[in-house]
Amino acid sequence: MSTVYVQNKIKEALKEAKGNQTRARQYLMTWATQDLALLLGLTKSHLNGLASYAIAKTLQQETTANVSRDATVPANAKKMDMPEEAFGKDLLKALSGRDSVRFGMEAATPRPVTRRTPASESHVAIMRSLAEQSSKTKKS
């Protein structure tokens, strides 16, 4: 079908809707359900994407159905030692704690707390001499 036919129908819809795009779209959609040539002309360029979407959706539904049928509890599965209602609350408490990992900061783990070693005598002497030199230059 030629694009001229589709363009003429679009112009006709705009004329019927007096320039209102929303109403023109409604006219086109109504006409397309009754006119196969118009429907094909409107959707021809999108047909590949529509077909791909339909196939992917069907495959996903089949996969989901197969997984739900195959989902059985393993024989060695352990029961929770707490009521199911408490599990969610405990999980939220653990995640909202001060030391919990923040989103995007998984690699930024806190450094382990270590005791500082006392400074050596030579280090203390150097720091004192630097402080004295600094105070002398400020006075002058």
Keywords:
single chain, 140 residues, mainly alpha, 6 helices, 0% strand
Please tell me about this protein's structure.
- This protein is mainly alpha-helical and 140 residues long.
- The protein contains 6 helices and no strands.
- It has helices at residues 3-16, 21-34, 36-43, 47-70, 84-95, 121-139.
- The longest helix has 24 residues, at 47-70.
- It starts with a helix and ends with a helix.
- The mean pLDDT is 83.
Strand content: under 5%
β-strand number: 0
Biggest beta sheet summary: none
Radius of gyration: 36 Å
The overall average pLDDT, rounded, is 83
Structure classification: mainly alpha
List the helices and strands and how they pair.
Elements: H1 3-16, H2 21-34, H3 36-43, H4 47-70, H5 84-95, H6 121-139
Task: Give the structure's gist in a few sentences.
The protein is mainly α. It has helices at 3-16, 21-34, 36-43, 47-70, 84-95, 121-139.
